[in-house]
Design brief:
The chain is of the alpha+beta class. The protein has helices at 15-24, 79-88, and strands at residues 5-12, 28-33, 38-43, 46-52, 59-63, 93-95, 105-110, 116-121.
């Protein structure tokens, strides 16, 4: 099962302090809007998202259809097919993608320890 690019979405208290901290670690802003309290930062192949006031816990995120630099892939497993595969394995979905839709969609699951995992397709 290929879930696409991976990143960690961090729930932060002060996006400006977090931005400065991760810049000190060599991360650079890749996408986002600090005025909307979210940034995507990258250090080589490592991608993190900083989100202030948007969710309670840190989230592991996968993006079908993207490589680690957010380039669209020519071939990938559509999110609706991934969702069907996980359901067939008995994995409970917290939120679901509309299986009759096409293009961008997302769904959420949790690991056995309650850590949220977002599968978020942008293409």
């Amino acid at each position: 099962m290929n879930l696409g690019a991976s990143s960690v979405s961090l729930s932060v208290k002060d996006i400006n302090k977090s931005k400065s901290f991760y810049e000190d670690l060599g991360f650079q802003i890749f996408a986002g809007d600090i005025t909307q309290n979210w940034l995507i930062m990258r250090n080589e192949g490592c991608v993190i998202g900083l989100f202030q006031g948007m969710f309670e816990k840190n989230i592991l995120t996968f993006n079908p259809g993207w490589n680690q630099t957010a380039d669209n892939l020519d071939s990938f497993t559509d999110i609706r097919d991934l969702q069907k595969q996980l359901k067939a394995k008995g994995i409970k979905l917290l939120t679901e993608a509309d299986e009759s839709s096409v293009g961008p969609a997302s769904f959420t699951i949790e690991d056995p320890d309650g850590n949220p995992i977002l599968i978020d397709q942008h293409v």
